[in-house]
Amino acid sequence: MSARAARGAAVEAACARWLGARGLPVVARNVRCRFGEIDLVLDDGEVLVFAEVRLREDDAFGGAAASVDPRKQARIVACAHWYLVQHPRQALRPCRFDVLAVGRGGAIDWIRDAFRPSS
User: Fold this and answer.
1) Which of 10, 41, 51, 85 has the most CB atoms in a 10 Å sphere around its CB?
2) From CA 100, how far away is CA 111, in angstroms rounded?
3) The whole model's pTM is what?
4) Ranges 5-19, 27-41, 80-94: which has the least confidence
């Protein structure tokens, strides 16, 4: 595993723990399919949350949250759809897409309902 991949995995694990402490247990991690990947799938009461974790130490290109552009959003939505097809009991739940933007020093900015699927 490269140093960058190890750092990314550590940040995702830290975000999972951070969200768990706030009452959102992890349902799945690193869901991969041909459409892309979802970092975390979480349980927020009745809502199933698909979360993207983004690390940016430098804000020169807009920061971590800005890196989840429309193309990345479309890939996350496609992967979420695939996940719901694979887990039909979960498909009955309302869903939400969150972004956890991790900045300099490990500060976490949790953006709930960061984007919605386009029709």
Assistant:
1) 51
2) 6
3) 0.91
4) 5-19
